[in-house]
From TrEMBL:
Top-level taxon of the source organism: Bacteria
Cross-referenced SUPFAM superfamilies: Restriction endonuclease-like (SSF52980)
Protein name: UPF0102 protein MNQ99_08780
Family, as annotated: Belongs to the UPF0102 family.
InterPro entries: Restrct_endonuc-II-like, tRNA_endonuc-like_dom_sf, UPF0102_YraN-like
Organism of derivation: Arthrobacter sulfonylureivorans
Length: 118
């Protein structure tokens, strides 16, 4: 596995643990369709949550959240609707969240969470 892919996988594991600790239940990971991929799908109360995870080693090229553009959020919303249809849950409340995992000089990564980014 390439180092970049391994970093992303570790970041998604950290994000899943963080969201679980915050009371969300992870129900799917790395769901793929011809149109793209969803990193994490969780349940938070009555809502399905699509969480985009961005993992970086530093902020040299910007904060991880900066990679989540308006176009990216719209694509995640569309993919989330596809996921709901594919799982017989069309019409269920859904939101898009973002998780940044930053591996820097600290012993443990810093995790930041944004609820309802779009």
């Amino acid at each position: 596995m390439r180092a970049k892919d391994e970093l992303g996988r570790r970041g998604e594991e950290m994000a899943a643990a963080y969201l679980s600790g915050a009371g969300q239940r992870v129900i799917d990971r790395n769901w793929r369709s011809p149109d793209g991929e969803l990193d994490l799908i969780t349940v938070d109360g009555a809502s399905i949550v699509v969480s985009e995870v961005k993992t970086r080693r530093s902020t040299d090229y910007g904060h991880p959240f900066e990679a989540i553009t308006g176009a990216k959020v719209r694509r995640l919303q569309s993919l989330g609707q596809q996921w709901l249809r594919d799982h017989g849950m069309a019409g269920t409340a859904m939101r898009v969240d973002a998780v940044a995992v930053l591996y820097g000089q600290a012993r443990w990564p810093v995790i930041e969470y944004l609820k309802d980014v779009g």
